[in-house]
From TrEMBL:
The keyword Cell membrane applies. The lineage of its organism: Bacteria, Pseudomonadati, Pseudomonadota, Alphaproteobacteria, Hyphomicrobiales. It comes from Ectorhizobium quercum. InterPro entries: ABC_transp_permease, ABC_transptr_urea_perm_UrtC, LivM-like. PANTHER family: HIGH-AFFINITY BRANCHED-CHAIN AMINO ACID TRANSPORT SYSTEM PERMEASE (PTHR30482), SLR1201 PROTEIN (PTHR30482:SF4). This is Urea ABC transporter permease subunit UrtC. One of its GO terms (cellular component) is plasma membrane. The gene is urtC.
């Protein structure tokens, strides 16, 4: 029997069209620019969710350090934008014109060599995905080749996220420290702080997200995707069949890192800064919660989970900022205990069957008696 490798089933096509309409038509049509930019920020976390669906949902690899790659992608973009804003004319009042302001404040007198390539936008676009993928490859090769997995891998990724946060904060003269890289103004001369720029960036962000969703779905329905599921369920059988399980894990971990990095770069463009507060343990765990709430087995669920949880976070934290972390923890426990497949599982098991029965009932009532079998 030949397995079905259709990219989307009919129901999934409907879900994709509905999501595209929501992101590209409904939300821009009903929200002002400020709220639209806020939704765009939420969507940047959906990139992380897509990667986690592949890495955690399909491959069974729980990473609690996706903030590493989100932050690396964001910092790569921020370095380019900061250099563009730090021309000798714009920084003439500094002791050393032509370098970022935080470097001048920390008595750095020359642009570090590893900052210099980020004067090129083409190199920056390459680095946004290549640098996180390289770090993910190093981490994955070191762990998976030694068959480190499960809870041990999750804890190690947490530790690496904490280490990277400490490193960024400690190297204030080169990274901006705890404040991060701020005061980002233009992209190739285009002012990204205007309302029109935020409007355009939202559509770029949404378009990239839909493209990444299609690519992630292609990976899921491919032979590689089926092997990921097989590894998740019975890794020993896949290994005994002659496949190098470690290489498959490394690849999907790097792919998830690249998705996260794209989200981080778009976050920097839309918000206008990047700081270590988006790299550490807490944001990494929050990213896992977005995916878990939406449904770790559903790409569409990951997007909706990121939107809904972040919207709830914004609303709830405005009134009870000190209680939000407790609410987030309770939400994660509730998901794990009550509906482990998230909102997507609830929709599939309860909402969709109920809607189908309702439509069948309405359709049967509306049919003429002759079509229903009457004389």
């Amino acid at each position: 029997m030949i397995p079905d490798t259709t990219l989307f089933q009919k129901r999934e096509w409907l879900a994709f069209v509905a999501l595209a309409a929501l992101l590209l038509l409904v939300i821009p049509g009903v929200l002002d620019v400020f709220r639209l930019n806020l939704v765009g920020k939420y969507l940047t976390y959906a990139f992380v969710g897509l990667g986690l669906v592949l890495c955690w949902g399909a491959g069974g690899i729980l990473s609690l350090g996706q903030g590493i790659f989100f932050g690396l992608g964001g910092y790569c973009m921020a370095m380019f934008l900061k250099l563009e804003a730090s021309t000798p004319q714009a920084t003439a009042i500094q002791s050393t014109p032509g370098i970022p302001d935080f470097m001048d404040w920390n008595q750095v007198t020359a642009l570090p060599f590893w900052w210099q390539p980020f004067n090129s936008f083409a190199f920056t676009l390459f680095a946004v995905v290549a640098v996180p993928a390289f770090f993910a490859f190093i981490i994955g090769a070191a762990m998976f080749k030694r068959r480190v997995g499960g809870v041990y891998f999750a804890i190690i990724t947490q530790a690496i996220a904490a280490i990277l946060t400490i490193l960024i904060i400690g190297q204030q003269g080169y990274t901006g420290g705890v404040n991060g890289i701020t005061d980002l103004r233009t992209l190739l001369g285009w002012d990204i702080r205007t309302d029109s720029a935020k409007f355009v960036l939202y559509f770029v962000n949404a378009g990239l997200l839909l493209a990444c969703l299609v690519f992630a779905q292609f990976v899921r329905v491919s032979k590689f995707g089926r092997l990921l599921v097989a590894m998740r369920d019975r890794e020993d059988r896949v290994r005994f069949s002659g496949y190098d399980v470690a290489d498959f894990k490394i690849f999907v971990f790097c792919l998830a890192a690249m998705f996260s990095a794209i989200g981080g770069a778009m976050f920097t463009l839309q918000v206008g800064f990047m700081s270590p507060s988006f790299v550490g343990i807490v944001p990494s765990i929050e990213m896992v919660i977005f995916c878990a709430v939406g449904g770790r087995l559903s790409l569409f669920g990951a997007v909706y989970g990121a939107l809904l949880v972040n919207a709830a976070k914004t609303s709830f934290s405005e009134s009870f900022p000190e209680l939000w972390l407790f609410a987030m923890g309770g939400l994660f426990i509730a998901v794990v205990m009550a509906f482990p497949l998230g909102l997507a599982g609830l929709f599939r098991d309860y909402v969709e069957p109920a809607a189908t029965r309702l439509l069948d009932r309405l359709f049967s009532r509306s049919r003429p008696a002759s079509l229903a079998g009457g004389n």
